[in-house]
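Hello everyone,

My group is preparing for a crystallization screen and wants a predicted model to guide construct design. The compound we'll soak is thiamine diphosphate. Before spending weeks at the bench, it would help to have a computed complex in hand. I've included the protein sequence and the ligand's SMILES below. Output in structure-token form would be ideal because that's what our pipeline reads.
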Amino acid sequence: MSPLNIEKGSTSHSAYDLRSHMSDEVETHTLAVLVQNEAGVLARVIGLFSGRGYNIESLTVAEVDREGHRSRITIVTSGTPQVIQQIRMQLERMVPVHEVSDLTVEGPFVSRELALIKVVSKGEHRVEALRIAEIFRANVVDSTLESFVFEITGTPEKVDAFCELMRPLGDVRLARTGVAAIARGL
Amino acid sequence: MTRQMTGAKMVIEALKEQGVDTVFGYPGGAVLPIYDEIFQQNEIRHILVRHEQGAVHAAEGYARSTGKPGVVLVTSGPGATNAVTGLVDALMDSIPLVVLTGQVPTFMIGSDAFQEADTVGITRPCTKMNWLVKDTDKLSGTIHEAFHIATEGRPGPVLVDLPKDVQFATGTYTSKPQVKSHYQPRVKGDTAMIEALVEAMEQAERPIFYTGGGVINSGPKASQLLRELVEATGFPITSTLMGLGSYPASGDKWLGMLGMHGLYEANLAMHDCDLMINIGARFDDRITGRIADFSPGSRKAHIDIDPSSINKVIHADFPIIGDVAHVLEDMLRIWKARGRKTQSEALTKWWEQIDQWRAVKCLRYTNSETVIKPQYALERLEALTKGRDRYIATEVGQHQMWAAQFLGFEDPNRWMTSGGLGTMGYGVPASIGVQIAHPEALVINVAGEGSWLMNMQEMGTAVQYRAPVKQFILNNERLGMVRQWQELLHGERYSHSWSEALPDFVKLAEAFGCKGILCTDPADLDDAIMEMLEYDGPVIFDCVVEKHENCFPMIPSGKAHNEMLLGEAETQGVIQEGGAVLV
Ligand SMILES: Cc1cc2nc3c(=O)[nH]c(=O)nc-3n(C[C@H](O)[C@H](O)[C@H](O)COP(=O)(O)OP(=O)(O)OC[C@H]3O[C@@H](n4cnc5c(N)ncnc54)[C@H](O)[C@@H]3O)c2cc1C
Ligand SMILES: Cc1ncc(C[n+]2csc(CCOP(=O)(O)OP(=O)(O)O)c2C)c(N)n1
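Reply:
Good plan to model first. Here are the tokens for the complex, ready for your pipeline.
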């Protein structure tokens, strides 16, 4: 039979084949994961992502059903369609996971993020910051002579845009919650 | 009626309620209350191993050969960390295990206490599920849930970490029927999809069944239904390393194992088929080779209980999520109801093609009168043990592949090997676990000397419990599989692939209190094997074999199924032509 014609620099003579994906297009998906709120459950979910090399762009978690001890984890992740499908399947098979929904494919959904932005600036820049905040419907939640803290809620894109406009106006510090998302309608 | 008892007593009660008869373990400070309870009862037998890794592999052997979960008990810290390799091994091969570990008292957790380790943290990615029990009232319920999760759906190892104060404290026992688990995997496949598959089977001209460990996991009924389906349809069948025995090697539809070291006919049939029916196998990279060239002309069905196995590596045209036995039952029923149709003319042609591939006789090797060829040793072992109540364990390496190629398995649960993790050191303890479960059976560990040395301390366990395991070591004085790759792929630079100063295995056997046999001459081999088989006790058989034999066929990693290497003549060509760029 044929000899081993392995190209120079190729890794195919290692123990593993480099896997080809069904489509190479990387997509961003928002997943909502309902889990039993028990010790280590978040570590389990995060460990799945790091252990299998999946991306986490944003992750939020909080208890949503106190009596039933259930928490909802919202994960924004990216990957090829095949990887996204695997992520979903891998999450679903975890024992403490009750339900996984891929909001991105299951229909329209709303996603919101809250950010606190501190802008340290003086003079004209302070006025400009306030003006932009008004346009973005950001609230001032703290103020000193040299600083404001704005609170803004919106899509991650809106938060990004707001921050970008603030940056030239002074020293900007940022705290973001990450995305919480839910399907629209019934 | 509520029953109050200590946590340690609950462990024993819960194990009894689960029908556990054997526990493999090793004591230490953090599990002493449980050991005290073990001492005061006779229903559960405790097997004292020599190393915690051995306990886990022994439990795997027990589990794989009985279909029941294996149970392990070890102490905190080093006891738990020593068990980790076995946990990952069981996770990769879908073996149900319940592992109980001791832990420092709850009030000392996090203080770097003596023999404290974050066991649930360390083993989270190594188990199907794990728990730290902080409350005695929850202990027995957690153990029942642990058995449920280890055995339901895709089986796997689970771990329950038990702090010492929780073992001492008194609490309320929860019995098995009181535990309601939300974990209820789906076992019945989608009927419409099964019907679509049956229709594809009716039209298929070059079909093949590709079966795997999932058939064994599903239980004896799955193997029985598989046999019925194969006989009824007349389709050829191949299996992965993990599925050997689900269809008998003596059956005329059997093509032998497929994959990297699988048979020529099996791999070419996989490559050229038009309908591939995967039953409980996971498209492992030892099977697919280069993904882009994997069976390019076929439609593929995939029956698996774990949804994440489907479309993980290879796209399935007929994805069927369910338990093998359930799905096969439906497949048979539907196929019969639709009139038992197959393309018989096309099938006849397909078989003619397969018979041509078979005629290549890919396992052919050059025998020798002066030195024992490993393949010959296994052929003789097969001939002299055929028809006996026989269980085979292996270590990892060339000998493992030769065992898969040259030994025939007629029934499921007779073959224990570390496939997914490829753990050298698995075979000695696994063979002991099998023998403990089947005291009267013939249990042989086909080993390489390198692997065998990794857990040889367990011979002490075999002697202590009079487990008459036969350790059949194909001693090539090399880490043969590594040496083979170095020869073929790394320009014959044999970097650290042989051991000097190997022990005298016969003396070693005597030191352990068992029997040692040395065989170096092919002419003596039959008598020596008979001596091993007739001896009523553990035997270490040092079978000195050819040092430089390569294991063929071989599909180099990343190559397609039809780019297989056969035999040594071609190896020569490979080294000359490709050697320079293989570095
Ligand atoms: C040195 C070496 C060389 C190797 N070479 C080869 C080789 O040449 N050929 C080969 O085949 N292997 C080889 N292997 C083994 C290989 O690495 C894999 O372990 C093996 O191929 C996997 O077998 P499997 O696909 O049957 O899956 P398993 O690991 O047995 O997985 C079983 C699958 O069935 C599913 N399942 C479990 N229970 C059920 C159920 N009740 N119903 C339905 N589905 C179920 C699981 O979800 C899983 O997807 C080699 C290993 C070593 C160490
Ligand atoms: C614990 C562990 N370490 C390393 C390896 C890599 N490895 C795979 S096969 C092999 C050589 C096995 O040698 P031996 O047991 O003598 O068997 P042979 O191949 O010679 O039959 C090695 C080192 C492994 N599989 N497991």
